[in-house]
Structures are given as structure tokens and as C-alpha cells.
Predict the structure.
Amino acid sequence: MQLQAEVLRRDGRRIAFVPTMGFFHEGHLSLMRIGRREADVLVVSIFVNPAQFGPEEDFDTYPRSFEKDLELSRREGVDLAFTPDKPQLYPDGYQTYVNLENLPNHLCGLSRPVFFTGVATVVAKLFNIVRPHIAVFGEKDYQQLLVIRRMVQDLDFDIEIIGAPIVREPDGLAMSSRNNYLTAQQRPAALSLYKSLNRARALVESGIHDSVRILKEVERIILAYPDTEIDYLALCDLKSLEDVKNIDRPVLMALAVKVGSTRLIDNMVLDPKC
Amino acid sequence: MQLQAEVLRRDGRRIAFVPTMGFFHEGHLSLMRIGRREADVLVVSIFVNPAQFGPEEDFDTYPRSFEKDLELSRREGVDLAFTPDKPQLYPDGYQTYVNLENLPNHLCGLSRPVFFTGVATVVAKLFNIVRPHIAVFGEKDYQQLLVIRRMVQDLDFDIEIIGAPIVREPDGLAMSSRNNYLTAQQRPAALSLYKSLNRARALVESGIHDSVRILKEVERIILAYPDTEIDYLALCDLKSLEDVKNIDRPVLMALAVKVGSTRLIDNMVLDPKC
């Protein structure tokens, strides 16, 4: 891959990169379409990265569909699929990690302490192997997108990062490989995330700018469903992810909710000026 | 710099890189000569990296000779001198660091807890800016060389790392910008490092392979001089830096000694087969 990238760059070809953990859905395909449009060569990686899973998390059961992913990649015009295995990326004696000091101390980083170190590390590695000019990440993982942007800026990677809008199922559920874990019975509870985000937006746009009041309403909606457990609800700054008490500018409403044993996340930008 | 590197690489030119903190001596010049020989374009960076100095260390007083360094670079055939300032490499909000888990838990890492994080971080940044094919580091900072090699392997940098032998003054003192701090009166004490390394080598080559016995003799030599304080003395594995008790293979003898307030390091590979 690294050799191919070097040759492509010397030929003046522009490389777009979409790093993934596979089990493709329309969200992944939307990232590929953006990459396809923005560059000459489209590279997708498929690697379920052990470094970003905690010991109690779902690394072993994370859904995989390798052959189908390759077929979908072909259909989207992917030129190169990079599909390393664990010993290739983390050989014996591996010991180097990329850490961010502030951004992980919010939202998902609080309940998933190794997650962003794992993400930043594997993305730095993949950037050095794939050598892209641009890379595309989904806004569903908003905090991850900020972490990658910050890492790219801080470590001086010469790569343009493009964020892509959340893709939703027809009923509004944000697309995620982990939706595969949900039973039909859990679907209404899973939809409470999107429902509560829309309610929060309506409140902000109607002139209610007190975060405490909005978060209480969001909590009420989610806990009305059985089998839901809130990890976090936050109204926070779009860049720093610090809590915002009074919504006097566009803010991120972000939330993580467990439905049964499935952890779901979603987010929306709420703009008081709308 | 990044733009120039991109153009050079597209033209098929091979880039050699020597990262430095300036205040050049023959040690630095020897690295430049190796880089000059191995590539088409020779890049030197001069940057006293604040991230690798602890709060009690000598960042403010570290010797600087910028104009003279540029003149020496020219004489050595350096094509590009990259001389960033602190806000360029560490702007407001900077928060990304490269950490190694094991190698820093030895030798200099024990008394300089932020040192190797600072080194790995700035070198990763410089690699992304200068985009070299090869980079040259001195073996005087043996642990640093191992850290860089491991980071390059772990983060998949496509860069060949070349280690260059220690350059010594005619009296045997390993060249270092910090030698500038020494008074004429302290010179004999400073020479105790090299003297004790040679004594250790003689012992090992004469068939004495018990590390405790050798380290005692080294300690005795150094402490015979006034104003010396031992930071560490170690006989350790060439790759892992773990202590070696019985010298049954080539090992690294490494030491750090304070002479007055000046901390000096030196090392030598000792081979029982010689």
C-alpha cells in the first residue's frame, strides 16, 4: 500500500482515503462517494482496530462482513482496499501511541478511556501507510472528527480532513454498524435519541436557551422507553466540547445511550438563530 | 518546507534529514556528512524543542548560535535549513503527543520523565513537514535513537533511520552542546565518563562478565573526581535497554553523570567476544 501510494503521488495523482472498521452501511458509502468526487484515487481501509476497544467492550463481537464490504467497495468505485491484519499493524513489541490532552476528556472519552488514543494512533498509522491528500470521516462520530482534525493540525499531517453529514435510516435512526445488535423490540427505544435531538432543536429554536432545562426534557424522553440507560447528554461547544450553559451560539447536542447492551450515539448542531 | 518537500519528492529527489537543536559541533557535522552522502537533498532543522525539557531543566540557557549554525550548514552543503519558531510548531491549543510505553522506562527516561515524549512528538512533526527518505541521528543519544527507530516502525513512517557513531574531543569527551557549560576545572571530572567506559570495556574483554562488579569499578572511577554525581550507570540490552546481569553477549554500557550542574551522558557497546 505504501509503495503504491508513493508511486501514485509521484505520478501527481490525488489520493482520497476513507478509513473504516467494515460492515458497510449507507453512512460508509456516503463517505466513499465524497472521496470519489474529491480525488483521482479512492482508498478504503477495513480494519477492526483492537486499540480503540476497552477490555469490556465489543471487539470480539463487532460485526464483520468482509466479502460483502469488498463487493460494495467495488460498486462505489474504490480503487484500493487496504485490509491489514492485527500483527501487521500491531506487531510484537508495539509500544507507540498518539494521545490528545484535552478533547478526549469529554463525551465518549469519559466512558471509553482508551478509545481516542486507539483512534488517533491507528489513523496516524494509516495516514503514513496510505499517504492520502484528503480523508473523509463521518460527523456521527463528531468527537472523533475533532480529535482527527486536531491531530492532523498538531502533528503537521499534510492532509485535508472532510466531515460528512450523518446518514439516517428512514425512521431517523443514525446509521451504525452497532444497529445490527438491536432487536425489533428495541427499535422504539433506539429512536429516542433522534426524537430527543429533534425536541431539543425545537426548544432552542423556540427561544429556550437554558441548557439545564433542555437536557431535562431530553432525559425525560429517553427514560420514558424501557431498557434505556443514559451514558451522557451534553450541550457543548463545537470546537472545545466544553459544556455550554446558555445557548447564545450554535452548539452541539450530543448523547450516548445504552439500549439493552447496545451503546448508541447521535448528535445534532442546534442554532439559536434559526 | 512541506511544499518544497512535496515538489522534491515528485521530482524523484531523495531527501536526507538531520534534526538538531543547533549549537553545532563536529558531532552534528558528521551527521550532515552522512546525510549529504546518502541523498540528493540535505535538510537540517534547528529548533530547541521546549517539549523535551522539564520545568527544572535548561531550556532557557541551552546554548544557541543561530548565525554560526547557518554558516556551518552552508559549508557542509546543506540545501535547506528549516528553522521554525515555537508558535509555529506548538500553537495555542496544541495537545497531541506521541508516547512510547516501554523504552522510556530506562536510563535517561527515569530522571527526565517528559524527555522522550517531547522528542518523539517533535520528530514525528518534523518528519511530516520535511518528508525525508532518510534521517540521521547520533549514537551518543543511544536511547533516543532506539525511541525514534521504534516510533518509525510503530507509526509506519516510510523513513530509513541511520545511526552515526559518537564523535569525541581529542581528549575523549563525547561532543555535546552542553560541554559548553563546563569550566576548565571541571574537565578532568567530565573525562571520567569516557575513562570509566574504557575501563569497563577492558574488564569485559579480560573475561569479567559480572555486571555488578563492573559497575562498582565504574562508580569508583567517577566518584574519585570532585563535583561528580551519578544519575545512572547501566549495562543493558542493546534493543530493550533491560539490565543485563551476566554479560554473555554485546551490551550497552550507558551512563549519565552530573559534573557540577552540567548533566553529561555517554555510552559504549561492550562485547565479551572481543
Remarks:
- The CA atoms of residues 15 and 132 of chain B lie 5 Å apart.
- DSSP finds nine helices and nine strands in chain B.
- The two ends of chain B are 46 Å apart (CA to CA).
